[in-house]
Amino acid sequence: MIVLEAYVRTLCFALAPFQELPALAELVLQFVAGGYVVPTALALVILFSWFEGETAADRLANQQTVLRGLMTTLAAWGLAALCGSILRHALSSPELQQTAGLWACWQGPPAPSAAAAVGFALGATVWRQDWRRGLGIFLITGLWAIAQVCCGFHYPLDVVAGATIGTALGWLLGAAGWLNRPLDALIRLARRLMLA
Amino acid sequence: MNRFVSLLLPLLVQGTLSFTAFMGALQIIASRHGLEGLAWLAGPQRRRVGTLLAGLLIGIAFLGGLLLPALPGAPPPALLGATALFAGGGLALPAALVGASVRLRWSERTHHALPSPGQPLALGPLSALFYRPEGQGPFPALCLLPDPTAPGDDLTRLVHALTSQRIAVLALDGRSLGTPDRLTLQGYVAVGISHLTQWPETDAGLIGLVGVGLGGDLALRSAAMDSGVTAVAAIEPVLSPHRPGLGLEALHTLSWLTARRRAHRWHRSPLVRELDALAAIPRIAPRPAAIIVGCAEGPTSVGSLEILRTEEGCTFMPATHQKAVNRAARWLKEHLS
Predict the structure, then answer these.
(1) Pairing mode of beta strands B305-309, B301-302
(2) Residue B308 DSSP class
(3) Which residues contact residue B134 at a Cβ distance below 8 angstroms, ignoring those fewer than 6 apart?
(4) Partner A, chain B 267-306, Cβ-Cβ below 8 Å
(5) Could you give the CA distance from residue B45 to residue B36 in angstroms, rounded to a whole number?
(6) What is the DSSP letter of B244?
């Protein structure tokens, strides 16, 4: 109970500087925290990466990374959602809800941030091939996750948990050699369709 | 009803904005990588205009996102939001490909080609065009073989480059060939060469062959069999069934639909299963033979075969790049005089 309370209270510290923001800043914060601008930007980065490459071999390596990144992203999203539902189920007792309802900044049971998991999984996968692009994705995702905390969508430690899940999964699947064959088959299919 | 609208409206707006952003991104990619078949807004030649307009579209798409929090029912659930994003992106790709096809078709229509100065000839079932250079003969002459799997290709640049080097050209008309087998095609080539040797203004001792794409294989094989051929050149010849350029590279010059049609014809062509130019090349020596390829690195000769490398080229649509065409014309002039 103490751990959970400390977990929830971190949100109060995070929210404190963002009380009574000007309307425009509030709008920008909502804009960044929402599910449109950062996912679209990440999708565009992925799209650009698919076509990048000085030589055919470079392009093939980029395309493998893109497919690997998409797969890792889906896996990270699924894992974050699974962890979230397990936590919700574990913390659903009426007594706990009643007690927690009295805490300041209580926003519901904690759950790893899917946004952080997805973005960090993609960033970690891309980092293995091109650290600059990977760093860019980490920064964009970091901004997104911070904005979500500032808007009260997540506890700060949800973001940390999501980022840990995403990075670990991205690093793990990024190194998985057994994925090469199915990914190559997908690229061959795309090549037959003149898209790779 | 209201609930349905409040769920659907933000999704529709988000999908439309994603679609706009992806369309802009695809145009920038097309401009950056010179992909005609993906450039729906402006061709890669007008790179700045294309990039500027596309950047504007992406800017509008991102700024439009400011509207989303104000919509009823926003933000949509994450899964539905991701679906809207992928639906927008997924629709943008076919839309850009179709848009580029329409743009290319339109520019073909509006670009009025000059009437061909070639003289039509009927050589039995085969029709051909004969191009005579300006001035007094006798001229060296050559027989031009188009790619049998791409009979509609415009070879005007190649013909012009050759005639400007004072070489007479007999261009076999790919469209009249139908889908003949290899032996029939080689028979047509022999008829063409025989016709050139009998033409009063050509020099019967200086008859060459030039083939394009799959026609390159036929040219090299015909030269190996016919000792009357003085020199042979093949532009981006296809020497093995694993043809390079059957991917994204095809969109450098072709629309996606045309590229797909070509690839389909290529995969179905029985000629592909009979490729054998590599075995024929040693039999051409000591007569000069060359291939012109668009890849910059690699050896410059293999045995008696010269490999002429140009900075640009298209394995899938040969004879469209001026540098490759000029290189071929210069080499043929050098060896047919």
Answers:
(1) antiparallel
(2) E
(3) B163
(4) none
(5) 9
(6) T
| CB-nearest partner of B251 from A30, A47, A194 | A194
Nearest CB to A47; choose among B22, B68, B251: B22
B68 has a chain A CB within 8 A of its CB: yes
ipTM reported for the complex, 2 dp: 0.90
CA distance A2 to B325: 79
Size of interface A-B (CB pairs under 8 A): 82
Q: Are A141 and A115 in contact (CB under 8 A)?
A: yes
Given an 8 Å threshold on Cβ–Cβ distance, is A35 in contact with B61?
no
Alpha helices in chain B (DSSP H): 2-33, 47-64, 78-110, 156-164, 182-198, 214-225, 256-268, 277-284, 322-335
Which residues have a Cβ under 8 Å from the Cβ of A167 and sit 6 or more positions away?
A120, A121, A123, A124
Tokens 């075969």 belong to residue: B305
| Torsion sign across C-alpha atoms B91, B93, B99, B102 | negative
Which pLDDT tens digits describe chain B residue by residue (337 residues)? 577 777 788 899 999 999 999 999 999 999 999 999 999 999 999 999 999 999 999 999 999 988 888 888 777 888 888 999 999 999 999 999 999 999 999 988 887 665 667 889 888 888 899 999 988 879 999 999 998 888 778 888 899 999 999 999 999 987 776 677 888 888 989 999 999 999 888 898 999 999 998 889 999 999 999 998 999 999 988 887 777 667 888 898 889 998 898 888 888 888 888 888 888 888 998 999 999 887 767 778 877 788 888 766 555 555 667 888 888 999 999 999 8
Chain B residues closer than 8 Å to A192 by CB: 246, 263
Which string of DSSP letters, residue by residue, matches B113-132? PPPP-PEEEEETTEEEEEEP
- Does B149 lie at the interface with A, CB-CB under 8 angstroms? no
Q: Do A40 and B75 touch (CB under 8 A)?
A: no
Q: Smallest Cβ distance to A194: which of B18, B82, B260? A: B260
pTM score, whole prediction: 0.83
Q: Which residues of A153-190 are buried (b: 16+ CB within 10 A; e: fewer)?
A: bbbbbbbbbbbebbbbbbbebbeeeebeeebeebbeeb
Q: Which of A24, A29, A38, A44 to mutate: most B Cβ within 10 Å?
A: A44
